[in-house]
Amino acid sequence: MSSAALLVAIDRPGGVEFVDELQRIWDRGDAAFPVDQRLPSSAKAAVCAAMRVGEPVEPGDALIVATSGSTGEPKGVVLTHEAVAASAAATSARLGVTVHDHWLACLPLSHVGGLSVVTRALHTGTDLTVLPGFDADAVNASDATLVSLVATTLSRVRTDRFRTIVLGGSRPPADRPSNCVTTYGMTETGSGVVYDGVALDGVEVQIDDRGEIRLRCPMLLRCYRDGTTPVDADGWFPTGDLGRRLDDGRLHVEGRRGDLIITGGENVWPEAVEAALADHPGVAEVLVRGVDDDEWGQVVEAVVVPVGDPPPLESLRDHIKEHHPAHMAPRRLEIVASLPRTAIGKLRRS
User: Fold this and answer.
1) What is the pLDDT at residue 197?
2) Interatomic CA distance for residues 350 and 348, integer angstroms
3) Average pLDDT by stretches of 10, the chain with 350 residues
4) d(CA 120, CA 103)
5) Do 140 and 196 share a structural domain?
6) DSSP codes of every residue in 227-263
7) Are both 197 and 240 inside the same structural domain?
8) What's 105's domain CATH number?
9) Which candidate, 219, 220, 185, places its Cα nearest to that of 85?
10) Residue 343 resides in a domain
11) Residue 174 burial (CB count, 10 A)
12) Alpha-carbon span 329 to 95, nearest angstrom
């Protein structure tokens, strides 16, 4: 009688040994939980306990990937072998991956954006190089043809040396190179499921009457590690993101529902303000968020990493008014040395 499948932690940096250990875990019928290598020992122990490492999983479970979601509390997203295979097949088909291609994994393997490069290559038999972390020199020296990056790493590498760059994690830069494919997805979808606004084969996209994006696809999670599921009875997953269809039918993602700023009854999306302020000569990096206000309900606040001397608030407001209505201009300014980001470069507006 075979023993029950278990959740096994992989607590090692990226490299050949990581890939080999993942394959051994799968060959035994167990599921893998990649541990974030940047965590101190106590935090590693805590997240392994939260994910219930060493305890049983369901037959067919392949991965459990930690995600903070919207609450900040770690959740374990359970992805089955069927879901992982479906993601590998659909993404590889859209990218036109052939036997001559070579994947480079350089993002954190504890996140689906980095881990999906590894699982995609394993399922398709594509050549694979896995780095222990992002290193611009190592990326530039690689002979890989395909790489997954985020916006904060894109500017640090020679983009023209890759056939295709898969870009996820946060809002892409407006001047991204022509060989860069933007993706939309999340841990619950096993990686990106919409490429350059077009859903992958087998992926259904629905925008409900509240403007929320809903997804139905074979890549979806089975459940969270605690047994709960966000998927409804008809198989639809509510993403928590708001979006709309462009005139050509492509999906445009406005942003997280909770990030929307409502100031004086007007809706302001932080991403639009951030994109405009990024062109200000005194701004190196910027984060925009809503701050509670007795008069306006919320006001727009710009958190700025400056170039040289901090730019005055009025200069930022005037800059916004050249591109957008006045209600989108920030009313508050905070100067910081660096912006809070997640491990894969997403801004932490909260």
Assistant:
1) 96
2) 5
3) 86 97 98 93 92 97 83 82 98 97 96 96 97 95 96 89 90 84 96 97 96 97 97 96 95 87 87 92 94 90 95 96 90 94 73
4) 9
5) yes
6) S-----TTS-EEEEEEEEE-TTS-EEEEEEGGG-EEE
7) yes
8) 3.40.50.12780
9) 219
10) no
11) 8
12) 39
Contact indicator for 298, 317 with CB cutoff of 8 Å: no
209, 232, 254: which is the final residue of a domain?
A: 254
47 with 163, same domain? yes
Q: Are residues 248 and 267 in the same domain?
A: no
User: Which residues have CB under 8 Å from 24's CB, separation 6+?
Assistant: none
Integer Cα distance of 269 and 262 in angstroms? 9
pTM beyond 0.85, yes or no:
no
Is the residue at 340 inside a domain?
Answer: no
Q: Answer yes or no: is 173 within a domain.
A: yes
C-alpha distances out from residue 149 to 114, 124, 182, Å: 8, 20, 10
SS3 271: helix
Q: Which residue in 105, 111, 115 sits closest to 36, CA to CA?
A: 111
Exposed e or buried b per residue across 254-278, where buried means at least 16 C-beta atoms within 10 angstroms of its C-beta: bbbbebbbebeeeebbbbbbbbbbe
For residue 39 the two structure tokens come to 């965590």
Task: Locate 85 and state its tokens.
Answer: 């295979």
Q: Are residues 199 and 296 in the same domain?
A: no
At residue 160, the 3 state secondary structure works out as: helix
What sign does the CA torsion over 157, 158, 159, 165 have?
A: negative
* 123 and 271 part of one domain: no
The answer to whether position 65 is within a domain reads yes
